[in-house]
Amino acid sequence: MSKIRVFPGFAIPSVILAAAFFTSANAQDGASQQPYDPEARLKALGIELPDPPQPVANYVNGVQSGNLIFLAGKGPKRADGTEIVGKLGAGISIEEGYEGARLTAINQLAVLKLMLGDLSRVKRVVKVLGMVNSDPDFVQQPAVINGFSDLLVEVFGERGRHARSAVGVASLPRGQAVEIELIVEIED
Q1: Which distant-in-sequence residues (6+ apart) come within 8 Å of 70 by Cβ?
Q2: 3-state secondary structure 108-143
Q3: Residue 6 — very low, low, confident or very high, per pLDDT cuts 50/70/90?
Q4: Is the dihedral of CA 81, 86, 88, 91 positive or negative?
């Protein structure tokens, strides 16, 4: 059995690498054959996109560069203007944080909808950066940011799977529980 060197000191048997390649290729082919309508998925989930939250300082909600859109960080702002605030591990539960991250995903989708006109133009969710307002002893940031990631996969299917960072921070603007940035690739 031959091995392929991935980086110094680490090798993967070529059989495993080939299996991973073909599994990945088949998964992508299957995803492209299924109907793709993220807005119908939102409707099926009972989600109505709000008016996008407006920037609170000297920046814009999103910037397009080539076929990538970089969205500014957003937090868990409700339609009535209130926010989910507090520290995870000190008064805010993982479940409340998860819901805050899910609400943040809805807000980011509202920004994308405004920028694109049609969410079916999203070719791929590329990267998510989730920041969690955390007590110093809190270490379950990924469980919180799953609220954001899970909704993106529910809405976009395989196109919603993304690279991600979930980090704890000492504080966030206005005391919000989470703030999340998003990068997506769009169709021409």
Answers
A1: 62, 63, 64, 181, 182, 183
A2: HHHHHHHHHCCHHHEEEEEEEEEEEEECCCCCCHHH
A3: very low
A4: negative
CB 142: neighbour CB atoms within 10 A?
Answer: 14
pLDDT digits (tens, 9 = 90+) for 138-161: 999 999 999 999 999 999 999 999
Q: What residues form DSSP beta bridges with 165?
A: 129
| Domain range list for the chain | 3-33, 38-186
CATH number, span 38-186: 3.30.1330.40
Show the DSSP H helices in 55-93 as ranges. none
pLDDT digits (tens, 9 = 90+) for 46-95: 999 999 988 989 999 999 999 999 999 999 999 999 999 999 999 999 99
Please state, in angstroms and rounded to a whole number, the distance separating the CA atoms of residues 169 and 171.
6
Contact present, 166 and 141 (Cβ < 8 Å)? yes
Stated pTM of the model: 0.82
Distance CA 94, CA 140 (A): 8
Q: How many CB atoms lie within 10 A of CB 169?
A: 13
The pair of structure tokens assigned to 88 is: 């995870």
CA distance 41 to 109: 12
Q: Rounded mean pLDDT of the chain?
A: 87
Query: Among all chains, which residue has been given the structure tokens 């944080």?
Result: 97
